[in-house]
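STRUCTURE:
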């Protein structure tokens, strides 16, 4: 018979191995959870629980003072007990004859990832599951997860960190729902996708931040003093209006500087379509000044690993914001890197560039280029895009050089 004790990690580490057989110690906090220690000194968490007509032992995991602690065991034990109370069998024995498979979210995700391996977004799907979903419900039987548990998971993503992350919470909800849409035909006890009607944050209000001319000038001045990669990279964001990852993960082979053309391949573009970016002379100058790092095919490789792109965005961003505020000599409304893209798009509109040309510069396929128009209108606006980006580069140069804000010079585009 197991001895009920107030288990702690220190007590578990201090348990003495029996000379023969096994000794068990029941946890007072989670009913059914026990730590079993054998003559070899191995410590294993188990659950003793009635399933069907008999009492069985379900292994929870082997104790490790770092990788699988008492806290981890209690969390997993509660999930397993929840499954058992819902009629499931974590051992899988009662499920084999149904063809339902291994049954846990983690086990099903292995097959799901294989089935979706060809998707351009698979890396992001795997990252979301690894960071947000599998640590919480990975060991649960997939057909026992309910709407309330999904809601708690999503709420935790939205509010559990240092600052609210409603956008990521909605992304997690979407990926989990897609997983369950795939999994439902493989789960004999699940009639409804548990993500349906689960709570999730409201759609965030679209950002509207656009940098003023004074802010553009102050930012450019700060970037002149910034070293690699941040100074040149943010200049390219300002001049080209492309997405952050498209700039920071760019390969040198994508650039034809003689033709002043940057070809973003479809597997790196958000919409999956090859995108041609006309490079202004200012953008070409920035790129030509970048040193080529031995052993790296990237335009902006990481210093720590030249085969990978740079990281540390948050730290660099915070430092640059502070420097811009100091340059302005007044408080600065926070902006994110994507706001540089909106600033360029707004600048093109101020300069009189047609909306469809601006959307072509941004590689947008919605708006004026979506629907039937996108199907039948195949013009790529290459000349118009070059004219627009040259004009924007000239406008940036004027803003940076000007002693005051001055007037906006319109073009025909």
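SEQUENCE:
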């Amino acid at each position: 018979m197991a001895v009920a004790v107030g288990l702690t990690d220190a007590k578990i580490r201090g348990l003495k191995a029996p000379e023969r057989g096994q000794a068990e110690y029941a946890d007072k906090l989670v009913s059914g959870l026990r730590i079993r220690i054998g003559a070899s000194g191995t410590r294993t968490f188990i659950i003793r629980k009635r399933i069907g007509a008999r009492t069985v032992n379900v292994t929870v995991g082997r104790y490790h003072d770092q990788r699988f602690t008492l806290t981890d065991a209690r969390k997993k034990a509660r999930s397993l007990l929840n499954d058992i109370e819902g009629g499931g069998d974590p051992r899988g024995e009662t499920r084999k004859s149904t063809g339902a498979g291994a049954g846990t979210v983690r086990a099903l995700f292995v097959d799901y990832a294989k089935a979706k391996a060809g998707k351009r977004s698979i890396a992001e799907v795997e990252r979301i599951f690894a960071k947000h979903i599998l640590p919480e419900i990975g060991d649960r039987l997939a057909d026992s997860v309910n709407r309330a548990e999904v809601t708690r998971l999503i709420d935790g993503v939205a509010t559990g960190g240092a600052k609210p992350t409603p956008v990521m919470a909605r992304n997690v909800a979407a990926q989990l729902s897609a997983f369950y849409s795939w999994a439902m035909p493989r789960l004999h006890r699940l009639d409804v996708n548990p993500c349906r009607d689960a709570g999730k944050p409201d759609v965030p209000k679209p950002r509207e931040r656009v940098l003023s001319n004074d802010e553009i000038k102050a930012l450019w001045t700060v970037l002149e003093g910034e070293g690699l990669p941040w100074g040149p990279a943010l200049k390219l964001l300002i001049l080209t209006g492309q997405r952050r990852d498209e700039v920071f993960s760019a390969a040198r082979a994508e650039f034809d500087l003689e033709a002043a053309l940057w070809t973003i391949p479809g597997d790196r573009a958000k919409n999956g379509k090859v995108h041609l970016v006309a490079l202004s002379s200012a953008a070409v100058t920035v790129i030509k000044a970048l040193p080529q790092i031995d052993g790296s095919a990237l335009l902006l490789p990481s210093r720590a690993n030249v085969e990978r792109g740079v990281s540390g965005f948050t730290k660099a961003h915070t430092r640059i914001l502070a420097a811009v505020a100091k340059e302005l000599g007044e408080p600065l409304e926070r902006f994110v890197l994507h706001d540089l893209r909106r600033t360029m798009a707004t600048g093109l509109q101020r300069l009189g560039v047609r909306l469809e040309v601006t959307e072509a510069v941004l590689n947008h396929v919605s708006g004026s280029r979506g629907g039937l128009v996108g199907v039948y209108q195949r013009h790529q606006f290459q000349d118009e895009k070059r004219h627009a980006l040259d004009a924007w580069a000239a406008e940036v140069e004027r803003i940076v050089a000007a002693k005051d804000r001055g007037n906006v010079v319109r073009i025909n585009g």
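REMARK: The longest strand covers residues 43-51.
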